[in-house]
Structures are given as C-alpha cells and as structure tokens.
Design the sequence.
C-alpha cells in the first residue's frame, strides 16, 4: 500500500488536470491551419545561372522513332520551318530531367495558343529502356501538347544525335542539363548549359524569334 | 474532432502514460516511423494529403514526385547525376558534422552536424546548420514540426546496420538453384562463382577513392566473401519456404548468380519479401515485376523473344493473320513465352492457335499438319523436339534461342529459309572477343568450358557484384548495393553474352534488346535479320 499510494495520487492529480484541460479545449474555438512552421518564402530561388552560346551544328541523317511509334528521320524531322526548343531526357531520371521537363511544360503552358508555332523536342538518352510507350507515359506526365515530340530509337541513333549536339557525356548518369533553341532551319543553335527557369526559357525564346 | 483537440488529447495520453503506462511512448515512435516512411517513400502526409514542395524557378511538386526517395534513394545515401551531387541524409550522416571534401556541392566546404530541429529548417528554408544554402536541386517543403520529427525517426532507421550481417569476419552470400537445372549446368555455374569469389578473397583491394562520408559513419575494411549454395527440391510450391528456412539458418547479405529454367517466381518473391538483392541469375523466364526492387536480371529471356517476334509479326503479318504456337504442355518457360506472345498480339486481330505436345510423349511432326502455308508458326521447342521437325510448315517460322539452348540449333536445312530465331544475345561474331576472354579466364582457373551461356552469365553476375561492392567504398548495405548497380552497371565493360548491360533507377533488366537471326542456307550459321531492337 505504501509503494502504490504515491502512484495513485499522481495519477488522480493528473487525471483531474486532464479533465480540466479537456473541458477547456472543448470550449476553445477550433483552430484552423495550426501548422506550427515558420512562414517560408515561396519566391523563386536564384538559379545557379546558365551559360549561353551559339553553335553551328551539323546533324547526320539519323533514324528515330517517335513516342507514337512512327519512324522518322533527323534532321528533317526538325526542319519544317518552326522554331525548335530541344533537350535530352530519359524516363528513369529522377534529379535533372524532371526539372528540365517541368520547365518545358511550364514554358508550353505560358505560350498558350502560341505553342502551336514551336516544335518542342525531347530526345531519349536511354533508348533501349525508353520504348515509345514509356516515352508516351512520360509525355503525359508533363501534359505535353502535340507540338512537343519525344524520340527514341537505337542506341547508335541516340548517341549520334547527342554527339551531333555536342552534348554526349558517356553514360546517362553523367548527363547534364542543356537546352537548345533554333529560330529556323539553317540558323545557328542557341545552347543553354545549366538549368533555366520557365521565365528564363521563355525570355530566350522570345529573344530568338524576335531576332529572326 | 478538430486537429487541435486530437493533438491535445494525444499529448495528454502521452503525459498520463509516464510512469506505469510507459508503453504508449513506444507507440508514438512506432507511429513516427510509419509517418516518416510515408513521407520519405511516397510523399504522403499523415492525413493522406500529398506533401507539397517548391523548386527553384517557381516549379511546384506534390506527393510522389516530391518524395525524398526520388533523389536520396531508398538507402538514404544519395548519389550523383551529372555534376549534381546528392548527399546522404541518413540520421548518421545528418547528425554528424560533414568534413570538407571535394566537389561542387554546398557541402564541399563541410558543414556542422544537424541538431534535431535543424532538419525542419533545412526542409522549409533550404539552409544547412552552417547557414549555407542547400543545393539548387533541393526543393523547399511545407512541413510541420511533428512531420520533421517523424522523418528523423525514419532516417534513424536507415542508419541501422543490415540485419544478419556481421561487421567483422566473412560476408555471406548465397546462390540459388532450382531442381530443373541440369547437373552439368549447375556445376559449370558454381565453378565460375566459386572461382570468382576465390579471386576476390585472394587479392588485396586497393584503396579506390574511399571517402569518409561523415565522422560518425563506420566504413568497413574489405571482408572475405563466402558462398553458400541453396539447392531447391521438390515442387515449386515448397520453394519459397525452403529459401526462408535457408536464410534463417544462414543469413546472407545478398544472393548472386544461380540458375533456374522456366520457374522462378517463388525465388523472385522470396528475394523481394526478404529484401535481399538477388543479382543476375540465369533464368529462361525472368519475372517482370514493376514494383520489385531486389531481384535484378541480366536478359529478359523468353519475354524478350516474345516481344521481338511480336514486333516482327506486327511489321509483316502472315497473309492469313493466323498464328500457331507449338510447345510442350509441361515446359514452364515455353508456356510463359507463348502467353507473352499471345498478350502482345492480342490487340492486333490475329487468330491464334496453340498446339501442345503432351508431357512424356515424343514430338510427332504430324502435329503441324493443320498449319496453313500462309500462317505464322512459333516453335517454343528445345533441341530434342526441334531435331524431329520434318517437312517445313507455315509461311514463316520462329524459334527461341533461349529454349534452343545453344547457337548450334539442330534445324533441318529445309527449314532454314523460312525460319527466324529470336535472339536475346549479342551476335556471335560481335561477342567473340569477350567469349575468348572468358575462355582464357576459365582456363586460368582450371575450369572446363562446359556451358558457355551459364558460365558467361555467372561470370558477369559475379563481376558486377565485385564492381558494385567496390563502388560502395566499404559501405555494406543491401539497398545501396542495388543503387550502385543501377547507377554504374552501364560503365562496366564485362557484358558477357549481351551487347550491352545497363540499369537505371527502377530498371531491373540489364539487357533489353535483341535480334532476329536467320540461318545461312548453306552452313546454318547465324546471321542478323535486322537491327538490334528493344521491343
């Protein structure tokens, strides 16, 4: 009895305090959004910057397969007169490609109806994994419109295109963020090395088509 | 009941629980672990809502795409992509200071240890405990304090040493053989694995850019490896239980190589449930499991072959639009193959027929009497049946290189001009140099060239394991081993029978492409009938 009594006393004291608290909280108004975190800022982070240069590139005739399964040929596939905005991706990429593709998606969204005038191109650097169906799934993740094409094909074709754009880094894990823009066939390519925010990509595009 | 009231009641229960009612506190941390796991792996908050995050450039992320696992991986040890370094975030890493090191990331200059509250600040405001900005790739999260606490509980669990693996002494591995594997193949495969293990144990491993990840993280010296052979017996239904019993009696770090025929599902299921990396067994019909993490395969075997044949039939359908498949009723691999081909062609409006040879009976070529001269014929047959083929049938016939068991197919010359073989390997001429190197390696280790395919696969499996363990730079972790293979297998030059081996995050088949080959009319030698294709 001696040893248990203090526990019982403590319990009773606490239970009483509980009951009081419960009563108090039942009477208190319900709290909305009681997240206790500090306010954080949703402003755009400063990008680490990207490097811009012009490049005159010669692409070799290269057979590719589009995400809809159709066979096509580069460079004819991107020489229909439209300005081209192009990058390299692979569907199992988790760090770099989602940012590149999300930027493309946001760029597409901001262009609105004007998007029909651009040809957006994403080429797979893991073509044996990235079957047309996988590319189509990836495209729908980013709500790609019909002006945004995805390409796969043989390993040789993918490597040939990467080398043609001087953006071949060996295996896919070594790839780097790089985006290409061209106002029209025969014009030089604008090469952007690094991550571009949608704002920056849009600005580069406007600059490109304004000059042409 | 409002969230506030619920939280208050929870706090009260905890408070009451002190003293004789202490177990409630353990329930709280078990809850934290589960909530932390959901955040880390799925980007899911306790109420089921998606985790919200923001990227640089104003891009939003939510739910699964915001989950930590995408970049920091299951092991929590991160990795690298391009020139972007993704640091380790296990509790071990975070709660210890990071010394200065090389690299373009923010922590190249080192950072102090995170305190328990520092994690929340890092995730919300993007600042490390030294006040330095986190990397451009790292999102900012909307996260409550209790969620940060739950996440930390989960990150502590990632720091635990792998179960059943001793810190000192030998590192134990197993290899699995199903009862369907012929003794000669079994011996050939085991000989290569053991010789490879002996090679690992004999040589001193040079220090290969070993990095200390953080002061509190323990790295291991190279441990000797021991190989245990787990041979399955009896019917398939009992295999998984046998493997569980084996693993209980002899815990292993991972499973490497091994062999099966058409039945491998129980082994695949065991590997996944036991969370054991199962690296590159030689199997005729691997298991395609989109959600699987631990079983890894070299080629896709008959699954690839079915895909190659389906693609060809889609390009050049038989005039009759009728497909006839022939197989032995009790050949599990052939059944998997025929099912896969039937599925692939389902939407294409082919009439399909299946001719089954009853178990235990000889193949009677008269079975093909009903095959029309405009039909496509797929023979999922092994050499003993192939050599009984008589008069050619059908317009176009297909064979399986996997089931044919070797390149020298006993195919009657009359069949050659109309037959294509689905071939998941590199063409013989193109892989000759690698095979010569394999033969030299075998000879140097006193191994006969008894079964080139089994021996090549076993050699690649063990080489890949050694390279990945080297890559892991002394950190012994099962998830980390799989992640190293995902990232770096592509860089290895030992691809054995295959043109190319590469994995990636979530990829579980290292070779995804193959050929259709035809037989030279005069010599029967294999000649590519088209480009290498990934169906």
Sequence:
């Amino acid at each position: 009895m001696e040893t248990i009594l203090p526990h019982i006393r403590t319990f009773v004291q606490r239970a009483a305090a509980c009951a009081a608290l419960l009563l108090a909280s039942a009477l208190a108004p319900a709290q909305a959004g009681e997240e206790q975190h500090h306010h954080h800022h949703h402003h755009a982070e400063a990008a680490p910057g990207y490097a811009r240069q012009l490049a005159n590139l010669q692409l070799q005739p290269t057979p590719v397969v589009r995400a809809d399964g159709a066979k096509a040929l580069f460079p004819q596939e991107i020489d229909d007169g439209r300005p081209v905005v192009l990058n390299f991706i692979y569907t199992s990429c988790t760090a770099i490609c989602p940012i590149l593709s999300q930027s493309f998606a946001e760029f597409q969204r901001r262009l609105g109806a004007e998007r029909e005038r651009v040809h957006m191109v994403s080429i797979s650097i893991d073509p044996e994994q990235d079957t047309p169906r996988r590319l189509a799934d990836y495209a729908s993740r980013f709500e790609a419109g019909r002006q945004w094409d995805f390409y796969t094909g043989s390993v040789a074709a993918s490597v040939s295109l990467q080398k043609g754009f001087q953006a071949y880094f060996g295996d896919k894990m070594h790839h780097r963020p790089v985006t290409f823009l061209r106002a029209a066939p025969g014009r030089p390519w604008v090469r952007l090395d690094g991550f571009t925010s949608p704002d920056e990509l849009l600005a580069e595009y406007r600059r490109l088509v304004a000059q042409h | 009941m409002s969230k506030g009231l619920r939280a208050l009641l929870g706090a009260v229960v905890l408070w009451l629980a002190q003293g004789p009612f202490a177990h409630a506190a353990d329930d709280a941390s078990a809850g934290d672990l589960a909530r932390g796991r959901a955040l880390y792996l799925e980007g899911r908050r306790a109420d089921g809502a998606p985790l919200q995050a923001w990227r640089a450039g104003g891009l939003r992320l939510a739910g699964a795409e915001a989950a930590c696992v995408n970049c920091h991986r299951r092991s929590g040890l991160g990795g690298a992509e391009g020139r972007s370094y993704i640091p380790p975030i296990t509790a071990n890493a975070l709660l210890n200071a990071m010394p200065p090191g090389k690299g373009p990331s923010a922590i190249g200059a080192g950072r102090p240890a995170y305190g328990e509250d520092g994690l929340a600040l890092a995730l919300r405001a993007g600042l490390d405990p030294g006040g330095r900005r986190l990397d451009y790739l790292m999102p900012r999260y909307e996260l409550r304090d209790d969620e940060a606490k739950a996440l930390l509980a989960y990150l502590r669990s990632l720091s635990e040493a792998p179960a059943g693996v001793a810190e000192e002494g030998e590192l134990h591995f197993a290899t699995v053989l199903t009862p369907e594997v012929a003794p000669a193949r079994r011996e050939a495969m085991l000989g290569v694995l053991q010789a490879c293990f002996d090679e690992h144990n004999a040589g001193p491993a040079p220090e290969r850019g070993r990095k200390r990840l953080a002061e509190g993280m323990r790295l291991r010296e190279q441990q000797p490896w021991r190989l245990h052979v787990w041979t399955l017996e009896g019917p398939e239904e009992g295999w998984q239980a046998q493997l569980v019993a084996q693993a209980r009696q002899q815990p292993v770090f991972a499973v490497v190589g091994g062999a099966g025929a058409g039945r491998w599902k129980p082994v695949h299921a065991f590997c996944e449930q036991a969370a054991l990396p199962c690296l590159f067994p030689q199997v005729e019909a691997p298991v395609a499991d989109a959600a699987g993490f631990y079983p890894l395969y070299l080629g896709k075997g008959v699954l690839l072959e079915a895909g190659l044949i389906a693609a060809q039939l889609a390009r050049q359908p038989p005039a009759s639009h009728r497909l006839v498949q022939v197989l032995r009723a009790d050949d599990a691999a052939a059944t998997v193959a025929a099912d896969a081909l039937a599925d692939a062609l389902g939407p294409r409006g082919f009439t399909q027929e299946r001719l089954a040879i009853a178990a235990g009976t000889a193949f009677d070529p008269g079975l093909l009497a009903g095959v029309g001269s405009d039909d496509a014929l797929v023979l999922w047959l092994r050499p003993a049946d192939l050599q009984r083929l008589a008069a050619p049938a059908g317009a176009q016939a297909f064979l399986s290189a996997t089931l044919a068991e070797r390149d020298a197919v006993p195919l009657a010359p009359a069949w050659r001009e109309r037959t294509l073989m689905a071939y998941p390997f590199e063409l013989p001429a193109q892989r000759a140099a690698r095979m010569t190197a394999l033969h030299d390696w075998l000879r140097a280790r006193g191994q006969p060239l008894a079964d080139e395919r089994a021996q090549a696969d076993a050699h690649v499996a063990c080489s890949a394991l050694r390279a990945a363990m080297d890559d892991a730079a002394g950190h012994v972790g099962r998830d980390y081993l799989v992640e190293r293979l995902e990232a770096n297998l592509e860089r290895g030059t030992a691809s054995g029978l295959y043109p190319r081996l590469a994995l990636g995050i979530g990829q579980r088949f290292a070779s995804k492409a193959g050929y259709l080959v035809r037989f030279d009319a005069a010599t029967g030698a294999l000649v590519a009938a088209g480009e290498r294709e990934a169906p």
